[in-house]
Amino acid sequence: MIVGGAGWYLVQKKTGPEKPGMTPIGSSTPVPITPAAVTPVPTVAATSVPILTTTSPPAPTPFPALTTTTPPPMAANVINDDEVRDFVTSHFRAEERGDIEYMLSQYIDSFKWGPERSDKASHRNEVSEFFKRWPVVAFTVGDIRLEHSAVPDRVTAYFDYRYLYRNPTSGQSTSGRISQEWGISKTSGALKIVSSKSTVQRDSPGPSITPGRGPWLFPDSSTRFLSTAELSSLSADDLWRARNEIFAREGYKFSSQRGMDLARRLGNYYRGVDDNQDRVFNSMNQYEKANVKLIQSIERGR
């Protein structure tokens, strides 16, 4: 556009009419012109503009794969050996008392009973029928062996125990040994039986022995089962003596005057070492426990 405009101006100047020349008017002294101070314009340094380069986007960060895992049990649900042994022992103490509610509380709602499944309602009926047939029961629990699983809130308990079941009314009794396997879990801090398997070996019936004389009314009450027939004919004093001489044989330390009189009659056959009656009873064998319970049932019936 600049070139074009200048060309157009020159053409117009060349072709237009000429103007008459101007006559100079005298000479004049030139007036010097002082140039104005020129403020230098700062030089703007060129700033290099970064060149945008096209690069590949960064690789996306992979998200970890979501996996469903079983959370580890709380510390309150970790099972230790001592609590399992107490759990097993308390079950049989409750059964000796006939405490069905406590026994059922040790099971989960639906559990495996042998090869089949059962629940608390069905088991309650079975246990109630059992106690009707055998009102007097006694147990001696042996060593309890535990097998821990990979999960801390699961354990299997293996143990043997001796049992005695008696019916004072009919005079029937049975005894033997049972090998037991319990599956035990722990939820909300409480142990529960989830499965139970057992193998039973019954004893052969033993002969009845007539009570002996001497310091003991029944010197063999620690080695055989007394019968209802031989106890029913005894007086109240003799029943008391028959029961307490079993405690005396196990070292119970009598505190009553009546008990101390019995200890003196026993002489060198007696040595009192423990005044805790429950602990002495729990240390008895199956014959002693059963005989104590049978005598108590006859005493209560009078």
What do these coordinates show?
This protein has 302 residues and is of the alpha+beta class. Among the domains are: 75-202, Roll (Nuclear Transport Factor 2, Chain: A); 228-300, Methane Monooxygenase Hydroxylase, Chain G, domain 1. 33% of the residues lie in helices and 22% in strands. The protein is built from nine helices and six strands. The protein has helices spanning 2-15, 81-97, 100-105, 120-133, 228-232, 236-249, 257-266, 277-282, 286-300, and strands spanning 107-113, 116-119, 136-148, 154-167, 172-187, 190-202. A six-stranded mixed sheet has the order 2-1-6-5-4-3. Strand 4 (154-167) and strand 5 form a beta hairpin. Helix 6 (236-249) packs antiparallel against helix 9 (286-300). The longest helix is centred in the N-terminal third of the chain and has 17 residues, at 81-97. The N and C termini lie far apart (140 Å).
Salient structural properties:
302 residues; alpha+beta; Nuclear Transport Factor 2, Chain: A; Methane Monooxygenase Hydroxylase, Chain G, domain 1; 6-stranded mixed β-sheet; 9 helices; elongated; disordered N terminus
